[in-house]
Fold this sequence. Notes:
This protein is an alpha+beta fold and about 230 residues long. It folds into two domains: about 130 residues, Phosphorylase Kinase, domain 1 (2-Layer Sandwich), CATH 3.30.200; about 90 residues, Transferase(Phosphotransferase) domain 1 (Transferase(Phosphotransferase), domain 1, Orthogonal Bundle), CATH 1.10.510.10. The chain contains seven helices and nine strands, in the order H-H-E-E-E-H-H-E-E-H-E-E-E-E-H-H. The protein has a five-stranded antiparallel beta sheet, sandwiched between helices. A two-stranded antiparallel ribbon has the order 6-9. A two-stranded antiparallel ribbon has the order 7-8. Helix 3 crosses helix 4.
Amino acid sequence: MTSKGKEKFRTYHTVFDNFTNRNLFKLMSEGFIDGLESPIAIGKESNVFSAKKGDKRVIVKIYRLETCDFNKMYSYIRVDPRYEHLKRSRREVIFAWAQREYRNLLKSREAGVKVPIAITRKFNILVLEMIGDPAPKLKDAIPKNPKKFLDEIVKNMKKLHKAGLVHADLSQFNILNDNEKPVLIDFSQTSPIAAPNSEEYIDRDVRNVANFFSKIGLKVDKEEIKKKIMVDK
C-alpha cells in the first residue's frame, strides 16, 4: 500500500468507528438514507459523502469523533448563548457542534438564505440536501458574471444578519456555484449576532469574500459590502 493509500485508510478508519457505524445503520433503518455512495470531501473536522435515498442522492456529513480539534470547537461554541452550559467533554462538544450546524441551517433556511436543506441529525452525523450533482465550490468554478454572483452572496449575508446570525467562516471554500447561483454551506461555526466576537466574524467574512472577488478582477469595496449587510437590522 502506498503512503497516500495508508493515509486515506487511516482517515476513513477514524470516521467509521463502531458508534458512527451503528448510527449510520439507524439512519438507514429509519429511511433517511439507503446507504453511503462515495466520498466527496475531507474537511478539517469532518468527512462528506454522497448517499443514495431512493432515486435521489443526499449528503452525509460525519464529524470525526477521534481526530476533531474539539478544543477549537469548544472555543467557538462556548461563547454561543445557546450553548453556555455545555460541558467540556470531547463527545458532548462534537455532538453539540453537529447540532449547532443543523440548527443554524434550519434558521438560515427560514430566513430565505440559500443553504442546503437540513434533513436530519443523529449525534455526529448530518444528512443534508445535495446541491447539484454535487455543485462545485466557488474556488473551483469562477462565475461568468462575478458582479452578479457577488451581489447574490451579499443579499444572502444580509438575510443571515437579519436572522441574527453571522456565518463566521465564509469564503470561496464554503460557497457553492450552483448554475451561477451561490449556495452557502458549512454552518457549524455560524454564531448569533449576540456572541461576543460577532463583529470580528462579520469583518472576516466580508474580507474573505471581497479578497476573492478582487483577485478575479472585480473592484470591491469592503466597507460598502458591510453596510449593505447590516442596513435595516
